[in-house]
Every structure is written in C-alpha cells, then in structure tokens.
Amino acid sequence: MFLNAKIETDRLIIRPFCLEDLDELYSVVSEENFHEYIPEETPTRENLEKNIIWSMQQNKKNTQDKIYKFNLSIIHKKDQKLIGFCGLGPDDLNMGETEIYYGISSLYRKQGLAFEAAKATLQYGFEVIGLSKIIAFVDYRNEPSIGIVNNLGMKYHFRIGNLTEQYKDFEGQCYYTMLAEEYFHKVN
C-alpha cells in the first residue's frame, strides 16, 4: 500500500520517492518561484537527498491508521520525466489531520497535470488507504491551487490566522476538507 504504491492516470505515473529521483526532483524544486506559495525554503541537494531517504523510511512505518509521510514522485508518461511531487502526511500545523499536497514543475503547469495528480492521490487516500478525512492548506494568493482543491470538491472552511510565532509562515493559508462519505457520494 505504501512501499510499492503505483498510481497510474492517463498521463502520469505516481510512485514513492527513490534515490534515483534526486537529480530530477532537485531540478524541479529548485526552479525559481517554485516555493512561492509553499511555506518552506528551497532545499539544498544534500537536504533533498536526506528527505528522500527519510521518506523511504517513513513508507516502512506508514499504516492505514497512521501516515508518517507518504511522499510521491509524479512521472510524466510521455516524457518519462519526473515533473513534481505529491503525497499525504500529517498536517503542518499539528492539528492531527492528514493533508494532501502537490507541486509541479513550471514547465508542466496549466495542463491539468497537478489536478490529475491531486485527484489520483485523493482517490488513493480514500479508496486504498481508507482515510476518513483529507485536508488541504492553500495560500490565499495561489489561484491555480485554489482551483484544484475546488475542482476536487474539497470544502473551504476558513483562512488561518492568529498563529503563534512557530507557525507564522502559514498565516493566511486557506483550510479545505473532504470527508470520505463526501468523496464516495461524489464518485458514485
């Protein structure tokens, strides 16, 4: 379910990180403005390698009841190239919920590929893992990502504010949710 996961869509293969992803993944996440709406800094190549190794270790610990981190590479079928990442993991604000996240190379944006990856990840979370709820945090200025979560059918609840200094980078993020019953009602 986690170690050997392979999610396939019309145009994408989505699978867990592996060390062979390092160069292509680093190329994507170090693009100018890639982290514009992501509240974290661009990693060094060394830190990204450590993150890939850590992600692989987390997949050995992940269970249906507790996802430590489920980082996935997005591979473009036609180009056979890593074009981004997506996944599921504990929410960054430590609210005890499972968050969906995604990021895609600027060269592959505006083609519906990020939506395709997010939709497949959401589906995997509900149908294979059996999650009861998935959330998303989206920067209020990130119109493409707001479009993605809206098209997924996730519900907007509020903009996050009044955070402690530890979480100030998340100030203004929009909080979205989808419950399993909402997902299954939508697909049936």
UniProtKB/TrEMBL annotation:
UniProt cross-references to SUPFAM superfamilies, sorted A to Z: Acyl-CoA N-acyltransferases (Nat) (SSF55729)
InterPro entries cross-referenced by the UniProt entry: Acyl_CoA_acyltransferase (IPR016181), GNAT_dom (IPR000182), N-acetyltransferase (IPR051531)
MF annotations from Gene Ontology: acyltransferase activity, transferring groups other than amino-acyl groups
Stretches assigned to the N-acetyltransferase domain: 12-181
Pfam families per record: Acetyltransf_3 (PF13302)
Keyword entries, A-Z: Transferase
Name of the protein in question: RimJ/RimL family protein N-acetyltransferase
